[in-house]
């Protein structure tokens, strides 16, 4: 299984990571939301995992507007959110949207895929609409593997360089987003939200490691990677961010 290819993110990869994402997100940030969110936009919704996680934590009624650039994922998302909420989908580049009439803008595993200019547009759209923003699970650039190997530091470095390709912010995304909201005088809360994977996540560890090594090798083809590695535990560091007007 590949995580993403030229046709976009594989639904199987998003399904495989969903339980780890669910366990990792910082649920206490939801309690800091000031008002009852009625209209919620999920940016880069994929198969709708954020809606499945968040909708049950918020009071009803809720109207969800799911955005993604990938129509195939939007179709899956539209039919897999929990009952009792209203759901519409819109195919769009989420960095070019206005958020008028929105009470919460949210996203999961999106910020690190964006450039600084895209983050600036996204933050300005939230500020213009005075909509709080909850952005979860942005990578922060460090993965700890057990048992460790001498190659791990070089692997992490090459993987992070790959994340920064084409001007994407990768591990710097949360810091840049936080600073941008603060520039407008907004309050920003952040939390660590690591994946903590053990033997019960065998399939996810294997798929994640294949993607990690492939990305690192694309960046540094001569990288020496241990053969037949039996990884028992992985911590992949992420951060969640809540921005309030
Ligand atoms: C890593 S996946 C995360 C999906 C989902 N939020 C989750 O947590 O399972 C990133 C998603 O963002 C979408 N995406 C990335 N950049 C986008 C953009 N500029 N506009 C719309 N969708 C985008 C991708 O198509 C993909 O579905």
UniProtKB/TrEMBL annotation:
Gene3D superfamilies: Vaccinia Virus protein VP39 (3.40.50.150)
Domain Methyltransferase: 42-129
GO biological processes: methylation
Keywords: Methyltransferase, Transferase
SUPFAM superfamilies registered for this protein in UniProt: S-adenosyl-L-methionine-dependent methyltransferases
Example GO molecular function: methyltransferase activity
Record has Methyltransferase as a keyword: yes
Pfam families, per database record: Methyltransf_25
Designated name of the protein: Methyltransferase domain-containing protein
Organism: Amycolatopsis rubida
